[in-house]
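Anyone able to model this chain together with zinc ion?
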Amino acid sequence: MKALIIVDVQNDFCPGGALAVKDGDDIVPVINRIAGRFDLVLASRDWHPENSIHFDKWPVHCVRNTPGADYHPDLETALIRQELLKGTGNHDDGYSAFEATNINLADFLKEKGVTDLYIAGLATDYCVKATALDACKKGFHTYVFTDAVKAVNAIPGDEEKALTEMKAAGCKMITSMQL
Ligand code: VGL
Ligand code: ZN
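re: yes, here you go
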């Protein structure tokens, strides 16, 4: 069983948003093109309370139930079977989709018989990386779509570092064309 996790394709991480990733919206058509090829599609959302300590480190973004926390309007959401809400507590960064608080993601995937986990979304150097590293650690065959992720690159080179770290942990890098 192959599952796709779409990580944080939310307005605040796209151009015009509070914590915009450069060209973050470029990945939306790629995700829309491949989503139908998976047995199961899940999507995470950053879902912060407005007074989270997370905002000591970051501009206020993805406050739950606000437009910034909505999916990018062009993302086709019809195939999403399970939402993963993370960073939901006042003291909770929630970078990894495995830290979702509305469901135990690892147990859910194992119950569904998922063995192979494919990851796309935002941002390569934060939530994509954290999700991919957890996926490897929990024993899933983990694939990251290099043409369906984008990095914050707060420090130049962060993207390269993140990709190197994921590869070292056992994640495979593929393009959507190789699927
Ligand atoms: C993220 C920074 C802060 C992400 C979330 O989705 O990668 N980055 N919160
Ligand atoms: Zn956040």
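Residues 86 and 100 are 4 Å apart (CA to CA).
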